[in-house]
Every structure is written in structure tokens, then in C-alpha cells.
Design goal:
- This protein is 44% helix and 14% strand.
- It has 451 residues and is α/β, with parallel strands linked by helices.
- The protein has a single domain, classed as TIM Barrel (Alpha-Beta Barrel), CATH 3.20.20.80.
- Helix 10 runs parallel beside helix 15 and helix 12 (357-381) packs antiparallel against helix 13.
- The longest helix has 28 residues, at 387-414.
- It starts with 5 loop residues before the first strand and ends in a 5-residue tail after the last helix.
Amino acid sequence: MEEFLKLDGTKILKKDKEIRLRGVNFGNWLLIEHFMIGLPWVEYKMREQFRKILGEKKYEIFFKTYLDNYITEDDFKFLSSSNFNLIRLPINYRHFEDDDKPGVYKKEIFYYIDKVIELCKKYNIYLIIDLHAVPGCQAPDWNAESAYGEAFFWKNIQFQERVINLWKFIANYYSKESAIMGYEIINEPVLEDDEIDILNNFYLRTIEEIRKVDKNHIIILDSNLWATDIKSLKDELFKDPNVMPTFHHYHSHDFPFNIMKKYPGFYKGKFYGKEELVNCIKSKYDTERINRPHLAGEFGMHYDISNEPKYKMLNDIVQFFEEKKFPWTIWTYKDKGSMGFICPSDNTLWKKFLNNPEIKTIREKALKLRIKFGKKMKKTFKHLLSEEIIEKKFIREVMRDWHRLELDLILNKLKEYDEDSLYEMALSFNFKNCKINMEAYNILTKNIKEK
């Protein structure tokens, strides 16, 4: 892996020969998400409340063990033997710097990234460094670390400058590291239509600063609206020959949820099959205007929802990416069993804790309350506001306030466990303690025709 990957039209080249890249996201490791670990709210709030309720020692034992064991060499052995050759590594900015010490970069995060890079080299796998959450939040979502629906990044030039400076630091640090395929500047931005210039100007400035210290690596850009609005990326961004776009596709954004029970098939008189699925994806890329590879950076299924048609849809999605020769990274490789095709076995202590009737009751009662509240909101304000506005602007944000109560109830149950048990819980995510969702795994690997 001594040669840097380069772009040539819609091809990715290694030593002037086209290379096909297919891989996984290492989600839920360096940015923890609530539905992927089983604790409500956003990561920094999980950590705050964990430390407050369980104490510093138990906090350190759990999270240090989690970080050290979530991804190990066994994971790389498995991925390499399965012919995956690309990893997208989502990272929380809080691993790089604290809000009260902006620009003072922590050394600990580079231990984990460097470890991944060394394993990438050993197993001939490429890496994308993805800044998944930024100061001020680039979107009003949990994966952007938005605890209350806030998204201040685009309205605060200081937040933007912090990220530009951070990328310049990262790029300088890794400028000679050929195992890195590229840098993904920011994950799933969300801006209003009249703010698109802010997005493009931010990208242009970031590219310019990166190129002052690193002319080797590919730079990857997410479009607006959760990486789905390819029109938001202006032509001038691609004057640099080594800049490419990425898009994300989740069927639940385009298809009615209930179609998952019968795909392919009819729902409310309309047919949903591969052609309809492909038409949804087509609006998210534009290889005619942007003559570059388009990374399908995120797509996936909720495996904890019991229905078989989801695997037919997954197969259709991957087949389409293969037909278009898109590089792709599925969301996600590993989690508690929601969207990861690797997850802790049922006999691990963490899965037993999450499946404890008391914990399940807490989660189920909280869900019922949220549903009841949502119905009341829609009924009360239906003559004043659209159902979409009520859902997005009110219900979703108010629900976050309940996450604090739900989280505290769960952590107080976790408090009953001793330090050795917390250590074992965190070890549940080690590959040796995990199982494979073979249906999803077989679909992914059978569609990889060449390494």
C-alpha cells in the first residue's frame, strides 16, 4: 500500500489500475449512537450521566474497555477474509478536542486511528476518516451529537474555523499515510435551501487548507440533507482533481415503512420493487455533471425488525451499486444487533442486561409515552400546523427531553453491577464474543466479484 489512491474520471486508481472498493462503516465505536449500543440520548450525554451515576472508576472501566475491544485484529482478519477492502471510520470531534480547549488536540484518539491504519496495512484494506460530528452540530440529529435538536454549526463561523483547523491538523499528521483512501470532511450536513452557499464556501476553504499540507489524499464531500441532495454541491468544488462526492441511501426516507413487510409488492395501490428503489437512489448522485466516483457511504437495514423482505431490498441495493461500479460502505459493521451484521451473542452480559425484563419495560413504557404524546400533539395542532412540521419540529425534539429520564433509569439499574461485570459487559462487543448475521453477510459478500 505504498501508492496513494487517485481519481481518474469515475474510476479510483491504484498504480494506474482501477481498484474496486467495497466495505463497511465502523459505526458505534468512535461515535456511539443510542440505538446501536442500547443507551438513550447522544454519546456525550451518555458519558456525562454514566460518570455522574456510576462514578469515575466504573465509567473508566466500561468506556476504556469498550474502546479497546470494539475493534481488534480479529475484525480485520474477518473483513479481509471476506474480501472487504474499505473501512469508513466515523469519529466524534470530542475525541480530538474539548469545547473548553479548542485547538488543543488530544493524543489518545491518534492511538486508535493509528492502530486501525496499521491493521489496514497488514490486511490490505483502505481507510476513510469521516468526521461524523462537529462542534455546534451540523444537523439536528443524534449522530451529529445534537442533544436537543440544535444545529448551530452553519451559523457560527468559529465552529467552522475549528473544523477547518482540525482538518488541516489531521491532514498534516497523515499526509504521507497511503493506507488512507481519503478524508470525509463532514457527515450528513443539513442546511436550509438559502444556506447552500455556506456549505460550498466551507468546503472550498477546507479543501484549500488541507491542500496546503496534503496534496496526496482524496477528499470526500457529503451533499446537503443527509448526503442526499447532490444538486447542493457546486461544480467549483471539483476543480481539484482528487475531490469526489458521497451519497447515503436509506429506504425508510423514500418508501413507506410498511412496504418492508412485502417488498417487492403493493402498498396502498402503488407497487414498490427494484425499479422504484433504483429511481429513489438515482436522485442522490449525478455522474454526468460530476465526472467522479460516487461513494455510497451509508445504506443498510434494521435487522432487529422481524421481516424477511428487507434482505431482498438489501440485495437489490448492493446489486445496483455493483452495476454502477460505485464504491460502497454499508452501515454498519457492528452494533448491538440493530443495523450491524456483527453483534454480541445472546449469552454476553451486555445483551443479557439489555434483554432484562426491567430494562425492556423501561424502554417500552417510554416508547408508549412518546407515541401517546405525538398523537396528542397532532390532534391538538392539526388545524394550525402540518403533520410534517409537528413531527419534525416538535415531537422529535420534545422526545429528546425524555431521553434523560430514560437514560437515568437504565443507568441506575446498571449501577447495581460491580466493576468486573461492567468490564465483561464492554467485552461483549469484542469479535470473539459476537455472532454473524449470515443472511446479510452472504448478500454482501456474494456481490463482491473481485477484491
